[in-house]
UniProtKB/TrEMBL annotation, chain A:
Belongs to the pseudouridine synthase TruB family. This is Blast:Probable tRNA pseudouridine synthase 2. Residues 106-240 form the Pseudouridine synthase II N-terminal domain. It comes from the Eukaryota. It comes from Drosophila guanche (Fruit fly).
From TrEMBL, chain B:
PANTHER family: CGI-12 PROTEIN-RELATED, TRANSCRIPTION TERMINATION FACTOR 3, MITOCHONDRIAL. Residues 31-64 are annotated as: Disordered. It comes from Drosophila guanche. This is Transcription termination factor 3, mitochondrial. InterPro entries: MTERF (IPR003690), MTERF_sf (IPR038538). One of its GO terms (cellular component) is mitochondrion.
Length: 315, 354
């Protein structure tokens, strides 16, 4: 099929369905991102070719004086319904016209992959949400100072030395935490660990939680260490920003020091990777349409993201 | 039959003085009346039925808060949420639309929709427009001006003339006056006394010369009619919190009068990043006032990218100097190619690590 350029806003709007992968900057609320994306979509649509104002019905009564200079007569002679003009009705597309929902929210300080379902993509996005795919984070901690809410922008509550911390010690702790979280995962399933059912579940591999009440961590790995900073890669489901920051704080306490979280970045949400996500300067209509198409291809390549029946974890 | 029904309703209406309910019912009758008749393709009976209504409807605009007089009999009392409902029958509104006035944005502001409906093109609007044309304002700008400030038509032409004369007496050039009025149609609503007081405030506060004051007012006409409370706060922020001295402040606000209209909290945030994060002294910030006018995230992104490339060198005495002014110029593509001398892919990758 030959590609054609589209100038018509209605055509674009009709095809504006799917899952959108946006790179959320840190320090910007999800609602703010959402309204920025939606208003940019509307701005783009309103700059394209619009539908003409409606025609008036054939025998509308002329209420003007009927002279040649009278513009009322003039307009109605052209049979254009002025009440449908853009200047009277306002812009043809407004942010409220576009249905939009996040798959899973990110905290204020978290940056990274943020998925939106747009229009008919809402169905896909809610399905992805119900399947509870894993999200991968890069969490950077800064040792030496603890803050009130474990983030860099609040008051410092404690300082400590961190000379004794080495990469090996952090890795060791991360591995043991991962093991204990995996154990918790089976407990959340509601089966007794000493039963045949638990054994069969464990044979299948990792399993997913049924609801979104409790955070579950599948993997913690140290990927970068340069005093005083260290970066952990965390694979998790149902996590929140508060949970991850508290995790860093608790890990530091285990290591006999204090730390706060200097950066949180979501690099993957199911198969939606940070490399495909749309940066802030790409939040315009052409970029968004292109991104919707890319994510559509990813969804097609991995249909199990939309319908999973098995309990065990994959992708 | 319908006529008598309506008459009954109107009599009842007069007794009960339950205006709104009756008007609603009346409209419904009129509408059904019209629709049935037009389906039958008979034009004459419509005139017959609408004419008697006409006589009885005439007194109502006086006792109720009359909406408009201009449009046809049928639509006169149909309550509506927007001006679009009246446009087909009102020549004033049609004139406004042909001027390019955005009725949709007018009706969203409180009370303005009703005000616009009451206007008469020949009587209220035309003199005002011809006055504006006499000042040399291009007719293309009328639409935008009226959209911003429809209350312009409320003012007396003599008053407007006085205000223009005042500006001329202050030696504003004709081009400056045109720019002021097109950029800020609210200026014309301010009495000469008030404008004088405001200009005086700026002149005294910053010890501006007449030329600088005119330059500032022409550059950013919105500043003069801005909220005084907000301006005082901004001046305090600039002077006390950021610590610019009188001389620096003067050149800063003449270069970038918009700074005073930015919320002070944002301004302090930007300043602290420029001063502490980028390490620019006050004197250099004054040289590039654009820095303070750019949003903080934009500055941060670009500065940190330059730092990553090892090109963040803002000292003109040393090699590889990059003017801070060029950092905030242009879009990301321009910045990456011309200032950072890198490519957009690198910049994107960099942005995705933070």
């Amino acid at each position: 099929m030959a590609l054609t350029k589209v100038y018509d806003a209605a055509t674009v709007f009709r095809h504006l369905n799917g899952v959108l992968n946006v790179y959320k900057p840190a320090g910007m609320k999800v609602g703010h991102v959402r309204s920025a994306v939606l208003s940019n979509i509307c701005k783009g649509l309103n700059e394209m070719k619009q539908r003409e104002p409606r025609k008036l019905p054939e025998n509308t009564q002329l209420l003007g004086t009927g002279t040649a200079a009278d513009s009322v007569l003039h307009n109605i002679a052209k049979n254009v319904d002025l009440s449908d003009d853009i200047l009277c009705t306002g812009p043809r597309y407004m942010p409220d016209d576009i249905r939009c929902a996040t798959v899973a929210s990110l905290g204020h300080h978290t940056s990274g992959v943020l998925l939106f379902g747009i229009n008919k993509g809402l169905r896909q996005s809610s399905r992805i949400q119900k399947n509870r795919p894993v999200r991968v984070y890069h969490v950077t901690g800064r040792m030496g100072t603890a803050t009130e809410n474990h983030l860099p922008d609040s008051r410092i509550t404690a300082r400590s030395n961190h000379k004794h911390i080495s990469a090996e010690r952090i890795s060791g702790l991360a591995a043991s935490m991962q093991a204990s979280h995996q154990r918790k995962m089976y407990e959340l399933c509601g089966v007794d660990l000493q039963t045949q059912a638990a054994y069969e579940l464990a044979c299948k591999g990792l399993i997913r939680p049924a609801d979104n009440s409790l955070p579950v961590i599948y993997g913690i790995k140290l990927i970068y260490f340069e005093r005083p900073h260290f970066t952990l890669e965390v694979h998790a489901i149902n996590e929140t920003q508060e949970y991850l920051t508290a995790l860093v704080h608790d890990m530091a306490l285990e290591l006999r020091t204090v730390a706060h979280c200097s950066q949180l970045r979501c690099i993957r949400h199911a198969h939606f990777d940070v490399t495909d996500s749309l940066l802030r300067h790409g939040w315009h209509l052409p970029g968004i349409v292109k991104n919707l198409r890319q994510q559509q291809e990813i969804l097609r390549a991995h249909p199990q993201m939309l319908e999973q029946e098995r309990i065990e974890l994959h992708a | 039959m319908f006529g008598s029904a309506i008459r009954n309703i109107i009599i009842k209406n007069a007794q009960n003085a339950a205006k709104f309910k009756a008007i609603g019912a009346q409209c419904r009758h009129l509408r059904s009346n019209r629709s049935t008749q037009s389906e039958a393709d008979t034009l004459k009976p419509i005139d017959l039925t609408t004419k008697p209504n006409d006589k009885e409807l005439e007194p109502t605009p006086q006792d109720s808060s009359a909406v408009a007089l201009d449009f046809g009999n049928r639509e006169a009392h149909v309550p509506s949420f927007n001006l679009a409902a009246y446009v087909n029958n009102s020549s004033t509104l049609q004139h406004l639309v042909s001027l390019g006035v955005d009725l949709h944005s007018i009706e969203r502001r409180k009370g303005l929709g009703e005000f616009v409906l009451r206007l008469d093109f020949e009587k209220n609007i035309k003199p005002c427009l011809s006055f504006l044309a006499d000042q040399g304002i291009a007719p293309d700008d009328f639409g935008r001006m009226i959209t911003k400030n429809p209350l312009l038509f409320k003012e007396d032409i003599d008053d407007l003339q006085t205000r223009v004369e005042y500006l001329k007496s202050k030696r504003f050039s004709d081009e400056a006056i045109q720019r002021i009025f097109t950029q800020n149609p609210f200026w014309l609503m301010f009495s000469t006394k008030r404008v004088n007081r405001r200009l005086g405030y700026f002149q005294k506060e910053f010890h501006l010369s007449g030329h600088d004051l005119r330059l500032m007012a022409t550059k950013e006409p919105n500043l003069i009619t801005y909220k005084m409370e907000h301006l005082r706060k901004s001046v305090f922020t600039l002077r006390e919190e950021m610590g610019f001295n009188a001389k620096e402040l003067q050149s800063l606000i003449v270069r970038k009068p918009r700074l005073m209209m930015i919320p002070p909290d944002d301004l302090v945030e930007r300043f602290s990043y420029i001063h502490k994060g980028m390490g620019l002294p006050h004197s250099q910030i004054v040289q590039c006032a654009e820095l303070l006018a750019s949003r903080e995230f934009r500055l941060r992104e670009r500065h940190e990218f330059l730092k990553l490339l090892g090109r963040a060198q803002y000292d003109p005495q040393k090699d590889l100097y990059i003017s801070p002014r060029t950092i905030v110029q242009g879009n990301n593509f321009y910045f990456v190619r011309n200032v950072a001398k890198s490519d957009l892919e690198t910049f994107d990758l960099f942005l995705k690590t933070r």
